[in-house]
Design a protein that fits this description.
Blueprint (H helix, E strand, L loop, with lengths): L1 E3 L2 E3 L16 E3 L4 E2 L19 E20 L3 E20 L11 H4 L6 E15 L4 E15 L9 E2 L2 E2 L8 E12 L2
Antiparallel strand pairs: 1-2, 2-3, 4-5, 5-6, 6-7, 7-8, 8-11, 9-10
């Protein structure tokens, strides 16, 4: 069977026209994602050379650790503190039947079988202090701190102009963000 984007195609996959399409030829949830598959055919002969097929496999692992503290200090003061540490790592491997699946002039030895890992790490701490002056009035002070790091080979070194194409030059970069604030609450 061949698959694309999580759909398994039953073999043989021969369609004479789009009118002959049978939804039963598709089955969801297949874990391998080939990037080349047989297209619709206009005769009983396959038009896609299967020796040029290739497929990609992606595996992601995410670790998360967090805490949540809520404390009542006396009758009027409440402290909330939350924290999260998240680390994700994605590995992408690919394989191909022959060098015919590659761009002209490249060999399997040059291309290899995997991309560099994609990694993301977030560290977030947020908290607030609520002081209830009376049943109607309260004041809250709050903060949030986030430090995130990215390692994404797809965006590293991306230039605003490549050849005659004008790109936006976007690249996720490591960042630190902090927010502080205060609110006043009145109940009526």
């Amino acid at each position: 069977m061949r698959s694309i984007n999580g759909i398994r195609l039953r073999a043989p996959f021969n369609l004479t026209t789009i009118d002959n399409f049978d939804p039963q030829d598709f089955e969801a949830g297949f874990p391998v994602f080939p990037l080349a598959f047989p297209p619709f055919v206009v005769s009983t002969d396959a038009v896609y050379p299967f020796e040029n097929a290739w497929q990609m496999k992606s595996e992601a692992t995410t670790w998360t650790l967090g805490f949540d503290i809520e404390m009542q200090v006396g009758d009027r003061l409440t402290l909330d503190l939350h924290g999260v540490y998240l680390h994700s790592n994605e590995q992408r491997d690919y394989s191909f039947e022959s060098d015919g699946a590659l761009a002209a002039g490249l060999t399997g030895e040059e291309v290899g079988t995997d991309f560099p890992d994609l990694q993301n790490t977030d560290r977030i701490i947020e908290g607030s202090l609520l002081y209830e002056a009376s049943v109607q009035w309260a004041v809250r002070l709050f903060f949030r701190y986030q430090y995130s790091t990215f390692d994404n080979y797809q965006l590293s070194g991306l230039k605003p102009r490549i050849g005659h194409l004008l790109m936006l030059g976007h690249g996720d970069k490591d960042f630190t963000a902090s927010t502080f604030g205060a609110t006043v609450r009145y109940r009526f």
